[in-house]
């Protein structure tokens, strides 16, 4: 009896036409002489007529392993499905849309910050603080407003733990956490939809 331990990955990304093998979607623990043959087993091909997202279930992996090793004993851990994101050949960057999106985000973010400050009367707060600290009245207390503006930008950098493409440290920032939560929910939705489609077709496809 050959014991094989399998852990599927949650999601991978492969190009169109790629032959997807067990080594692409799973971590395998098996006797040394079986590791390479198992890893090289082909599961499916990322065809152009398939959806952009393809789901491979643990049952498909088990079926392939039983074909390869009739007396195999399989233990599997973690997720029961792997989502494969199939992508086509990269297209040229449309710099017009990149520039348009950047301008839109820049002004949108600026307006959001200004609207927030207007709602909480931040200018009035600064003038009040200036009067309390100096005993004088100043309509534009710049020595409070300028450091505050610099601190606002610096605080955003620290909060999101990122400077352009570089991270300040290895800890996930709140945006990373929210994106991971969104990705997990998306994965569950994709798996449910694929299961419904397979059920409607009367069986699974490989």
Structure description:
This protein is α/β, with parallel strands linked by helices and 206 residues long. 52% of the residues lie in helices and 22% in strands. It contains seven helices and ten strands. It has helices spanning 22-25, 32-39, 58-68, 95-119, 122-134, 142-160, 174-201, and strands at residues 2-8, 11-15, 19-21, 26-29, 42-45, 53-57, 72-77, 81-87, 162-163, 166-167. The chain has a three-stranded mixed beta sheet. A hairpin with a 2-residue loop joins strand 9 (162-163) and strand 10 (166-167). The two termini are 27 Å apart. The model has no long low-confidence stretch (mean pLDDT 86).
The fraction of residues assigned to DSSP E strands is: 15-25%
Going by helix content, strand content and strand pairing, the class is alpha/beta
Secondary-structure element string: EEEHEHEEHEEHHHEEH
Low-confidence stretches: none
Mean pLDDT: 86
Straight-line N-to-C gap:
27 Å
- Could you tell me the radius of gyration in angstroms? 27 Å
Give me the side-by-side strand order of the main sheet: 4-1-7
Largest sheet: 3 strands, mixed
Query: How many E strands?
Result: 10
Rough outline: elongated
Number of helices: 7
Helix content: 40-55%
């Amino acid at each position: 009896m050959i014991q094989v331990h399998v852990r599927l990955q949650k999601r991978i990304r492969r190009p169109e036409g790629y032959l997807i093998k067990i080594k692409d979607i799973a971590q395998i623990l098996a006797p040394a002489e079986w590791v390479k043959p198992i890893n090289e087993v082909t599961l499916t091909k990322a065809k152009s007529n398939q959806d952009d997202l393809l789901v491979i279930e643990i049952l498909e992996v088990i079926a392939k392993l039983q074909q390869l090793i009739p007396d195999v004993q399989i233990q599997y851990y973690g997720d029961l499905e792997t989502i494969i994101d199939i992508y086509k050949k990269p297209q040229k960057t449309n710099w017009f849309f990149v520039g348009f999106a950047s301008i839109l985000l820049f002004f949108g973010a600026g307006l959001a910050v200004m609207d927030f400050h207007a709602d909480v009367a931040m200018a009035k707060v600064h003038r009040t603080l200036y009067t309390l600290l100096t005993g004088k009245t100043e309509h534009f207390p710049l020595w409070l407003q300028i450091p505050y503006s610099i601190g606002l930008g610096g605080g955003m950098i620290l909060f999101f733990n990122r400077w352009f493409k570089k991270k300040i440290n290895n800890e996930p920032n709140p945006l990373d956490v929210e994106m991971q939560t969104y990705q997990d929910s998306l994965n569950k939705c994709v798996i449910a939809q694929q299961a419904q489609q397979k059920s409607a077709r009367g069986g699974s496809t490989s």
